[in-house]
UniProtKB/TrEMBL annotation, chain A:
Pfam families: LSM. InterPro entries: LSm5, LSM_dom_sf, Sm, Sm_dom_euk/arc. Belongs to the snRNP Sm proteins family. It is found in: Nucleus. The keyword Cell membrane does not apply. It comes from the Eukaryota. Signal peptide: none annotated. Residues 6-81 form the Sm domain. PROSITE patterns: SM. The keyword Lipid metabolism does not apply. This is LSM complex subunit LSM5. LSm subunits form a heteromer with a doughnut shape.
From TrEMBL, chain B:
Residues 1-30 are annotated as: Disordered. Residues 1-20 have a biased composition (Pro residues). Transmembrane segments: none annotated. Component of the heptameric LSM1-LSM7 complex, which consists of LSM1, LSM2, LSM3, LSM4, LSM5, LSM6 and LSM7. Component of the heptameric LSM2-LSM8 complex, which consists of LSM2, LSM3, LSM4, LSM5, LSM6, LSM7 and LSM8. The LSm subunits form a seven-membered ring structure with a doughnut shape. This is Sm domain-containing protein. Residues 26-98 form the Sm domain. It is found in: Cytoplasm; Nucleus. Signal peptide: none annotated. InterPro entries: Lsm6/sSmF (IPR016487), LSM_dom_sf (IPR010920), Sm (IPR047575), Sm_dom_euk/arc (IPR001163).
TrEMBL record, chain C:
Residues 10-98 form the Sm domain. LSm subunits form a heteromer with a doughnut shape. CDD domains: LSm3. This is LSM complex subunit LSM3. Signal peptide: none annotated. Keywords: mRNA processing, mRNA splicing, Nucleus, Ribonucleoprotein, RNA-binding, Spliceosome. PANTHER family: U6 SNRNA-ASSOCIATED SM-LIKE PROTEIN LSM3. The keyword tRNA processing does not apply. It holds the Pfam family LSM. It is found in: Nucleus. Transmembrane segments: none annotated. The keyword rRNA-binding does not apply.
Length: 85, 98, 98
């Protein structure tokens, strides 16, 4: 029997580790995942926000943050984010 | 293969006991922790609102007190109270320890 | 001053307490309104009277001085009575409660 795993179960296993969040627009976040809900609203800690602008990449450091799930496009578990790749 | 995995219903209930602190974990816990605290609310447009979080609802509609509006790092407005419609909210970030 | 001392349990309470008062409304598309609030609903559809609308029109004159020269045109107009569709609302600020 093929093991059936739900997408959000994978994200559940990322709780406590760092995650890279790519938004629908030109914006990305990295941080330690503390939790999330059914809308994929996410609580992150030690957050870096990356804003891709024509002038280059702008970063903002944030403490504990609730990210609205509405504009999330992709989640990359265990990644340090755009700095890494 | 993989027949030794735990039964479906509660996969990871046996791991750690519930953390005693109230400010970790789910979005709901986070929000309980930040009500009454200074927060930064960033809208999808990039505009920031810094103020004291009075309350919010399930749509992420937000009531803020002593609010400053920041555009590109510059204060552009101040409001005693402000209602922010939730669909515009990108994130709510704690601006003081919770 | 916390939420319990101001009688606000949910964000819409801010709006309810502003009925018949002059409010400031920020809308998508760089529009701002100031008017007397007569009615609202859960979508944040609004009925305002005695309204002044301010539209910010920013022209960036790249050819004159690259990136530097900006002219902001502000257009204003008045309306007696206005319905505002809720999905355009970003922020509502009631008059100061002090």
């Amino acid at each position: 029997m093929a093991s059936q795993i739900l997408p959000l179960e994978l994200i559940d296993r990322c709780i406590g580790s760092r995650i890279w969040v790519v938004m629908k627009g030109d914006r990305e976040f990295t941080g330690k995942l503390l939790g999330f809900d059914d809308f994929v609203n996410m609580v992150l800690e030690d957050v870096t926000e990356y804003e891709m602008t024509p002038e280059g990449r702008k970063t903002t450091k944030l403490a504990q943050t609730l990210l609205n799930g509405n504009n999330i496009c992709m989640l990359i578990p265990g990644s340090a984010g755009p700095e890494e790749s | 293969m993989d027949d030794n995995t735990p039964p479906p219903p509660p996969p990871e209930e046996n791991s750690p006991p519930p953390a005693p602190s109230s400010h970790t974990g789910s979005p709901t816990d986070f929000l309980k922790g930040v009500v009454g605290k200074r927060v930064i609310v960033r809208l999808t447009s990039g505009v920031d609102y810094q103020g004291v979080l009075s309350c919010l609802d399930g749509y992420m509609n937000i009531a803020l007190e002593q609010t400053e509006e920041h555009v590109n790092g510059v204060v552009t407005n101040r409001y005693g109270d402000a209602f922010i419609r939730g669909n515009n909210v990108l994130y709510i970030s704690a601006a003081e320890p919770i | 001053m916390d939420a319990s001392s101001t009688g606000i349990q949910e964000p819409f309470d801010l709006i309810r307490l502003s009925l018949s008062e002059r409010v400031f409304v920020k809308l998508r598309g760089d529009r701002q309104l100031s008017g007397v609030l007569h009615a609202y609903d859960g979508h944040m559809n609004l009925i305002l009277s005695d309204v002044e609308e301010t539209i910010m029109i920013v022209d960036v004159d790249e050819e004159v001085q690259p990136g530097a020269q900006r002219t902001v045109n502000v257009a204003k107009r008045k309306m007696d009575m206005l319905f505002v569709r809720g999905d355009g609302v970003i922020l509502v600020s009631p008059p100061s409660r002090t």
